[in-house]
């Protein structure tokens, strides 16, 4: 089974230019890689990963969210499927869809 993490989308993940990766997942990310490919709905989405003390998706995150009409309350699973010489590849699974009344917290 591939390592993964889930994020319940909250307003800030929709409106900001980045999305934090949970600290417990850092051990799965090689420090030499700063590019990620998120596969979602049959399309690859390229973005940068900040590889400092805290890690997050950036430089492409907001474009991904806007172009896929990602909403507050959606539960998204980020499955790490491959680490290549140049990038880290994730498969995204929307495992649930919330409503505006749903609580929104990162897992």
UniProtKB/TrEMBL annotation:
UniProt-annotated location(s): Nucleus
Pfam families, per database record: B3
Sample GO molecular function, one term: DNA binding
Segments forming domain TF-B3: 4-94
Keywords, ordered alphabetically: DNA-binding, Nucleus, Transcription, Transcription regulation
This protein's GO CC annotations: nucleus
Chief location bin: nucleus
Protein name per UniProt: TF-B3 domain-containing protein
Native source species: Nicotiana attenuata (Coyote tobacco)
């Amino acid at each position: 089974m591939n390592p993964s993490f889930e994020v319940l989308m909250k307003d800030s993940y929709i409106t900001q230019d980045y999305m934090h990766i949970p600290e417990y997942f850092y051990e799965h990310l090689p420090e030499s890689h700063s590019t990620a490919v998120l596969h979602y709905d049959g399309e690859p989405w390229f973005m940068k990963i900040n590889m400092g003390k805290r890690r997050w998706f950036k430089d492409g995150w907001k474009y991904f969210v806007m172009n896929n009409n990602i909403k507050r309350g959606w539960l998204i699973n980020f499955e790490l499927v491959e680490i290549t010489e140049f990038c880290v590849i994730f498969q995204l699974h929307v495992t649930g869809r919330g409503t505006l009344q749903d609580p929104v917290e990162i897992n």
